[in-house]
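Table 4 source record.
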Amino acid sequence: MGIFDKIRGEFIDIIEWTDDSRDTIVWRFPRYENEIKMGAKLTVRESQAAVFVNEGQVADAYPPGMYTLQTQNMPIMSTLKGWKYGFNSPFKAEVYFVNTRQFTDLKWGTQNPIILRDPEFGMVRLRAFGGYAVRVVEPVALLKELAGTDPQFRTEEVSEYLRQMIIGKVGPAIAAAKVPMLDLVTQQDRIGGAIASALNLELRANGVEISKFIIENISVPPEVEAAMDKRTQMGVVGDLDQYTKFQSANAIEAAANNQGGAGEGLGIGLGMALGQRAAGPQGAPQQYQQPQYQQTQYQQPMAPQYQPPSAPTPQVPPPLPQSEQWFIGANGQQLGPFDRGQLGQQISAGTLTRETLVWKSGMPQWTPAAQAPEVSPLFGATPPPLPPQS
């Protein structure tokens, strides 16, 4: 290498930045000990800006384009350097490239719930999360307020600062919207726009702005969600009395399809109950009314005529009490119905254990036999199976 090639290598002729990352906001051109040659080529690509810094002072800034560095297009640098009558020698300066595109991979979320007053549910706790996009609008202000002399300023260095500002605006924005909790989903775009506007009033001094703010979801704690699900189920069911009758009718139909003796007994009892309901008050026996005797001042009271006693009205026995009908879920099949005596036989046979699921009309769901108050005493009263005979 000749002496002139070595001297030529100490001067920088081309200044450019090809961004190969997705999170770099500011990148400092690696000048080191080299000097920038007067007349060097500066290439600023789209979504970039270049800022020259001389001895800690921000000088000239360049938008996208290609420039030949001369004193004519470096007015601030010429003033700081004292180049009054032109200057052709190399000079030293720091060059920062600022990425002005949108950074869209930023997330936010409330670490702690926001407590608000709801007109329907009273005091509620809400959590929210989403994403946002940020971009640089004033490169010089960004270098002065946030980036400083950082050679590579990334989004992770400013994301926590932005997240804290966002959380400080989310609660007041939701409260100011005065929207019931159940209607917040219809107003998320409007609330997000209000939050972005409030943030930009404070962030413009730092050279950045929130270009897009998204509220992905607003939710309540899990226990409140469970309570709301129960309320929704009640609304879907409607009349609980009619729903219970419907469930009972399905259970009776299932029992009628069963060919066991318990199913036949249940059908007989159902027929008697329906017959009594159909008879109603018209089918009830009429009671004997004793004749009334009138007495006036002109007539002597008449003695009642003798009537033979009528035959006693036959008493109709009440319907037989219906025994409880239990169903067993064993080996993936539904067995039954069984009365309590038959349940004891199932326990002795080993089909019904304490963990076996049982159900009868009126129960909301299948329950282990040991947790059913009517069934659990049967396990203590039923002897275990005989040991195998040798």
